[in-house]
TrEMBL record:
Protein name per Swiss-Prot or TrEMBL: Bet v I/Major latex protein domain-containing protein
Homology family: Belongs to the MLP family.
One Pfam entry name: Bet_v_1
Matches recorded under SUPFAM superfamilies: Bet v1-like
InterPro entries: Bet_v_I/MLP (IPR000916), MLP-like (IPR052006), START-like_dom_sf (IPR023393)
PANTHER family per the UniProt record, alphabetical: BET V I_MAJOR LATEX PROTEIN DOMAIN-CONTAINING PROTEIN (PTHR31338:SF20), POLYKETIDE CYCLASE/DEHYDRASE AND LIPID TRANSPORT SUPERFAMILY PROTEIN (PTHR31338)
Length: 81
């Protein structure tokens, strides 16, 4: 991932309509330069006015000894806001 540069993340979307969850199964893209697995999961929780979205990102780094980069954390924080 690079700042100021568009990147590609190709996904297959899985919808769980009954439990209000959608999962993005990564297929290809720039994210796989740093990660073996990147799977965002969003669960919608109904509230009295609208819903709250709970985001979980399952991931596995290509090199487990490598620290998580700031740009990766910035991307995850942006996706969850």
């Amino acid at each position: 991932m690079s700042y100021g540069k568009s990147e590609i993340f190709k996904v297959k979307v899985e919808l769980g309509e009954e439990n209000m969850i959608f999962t993005l199964h990564g297929i290809d893209g720039d994210v796989y330069d740093d990660y073996k697995v990147c799977r965002p999961i969003c669960k919608l929780v109904p509230k009295s006015k609208g819903c709250v979205a709970k985001l979980t990102i399952e991931y596995e780094r290509v090199n487990g000894d490598m620290p998580i980069s700031n740009k990766s954390m910035d991307c995850h924080a942006f996706a969850s806001s």
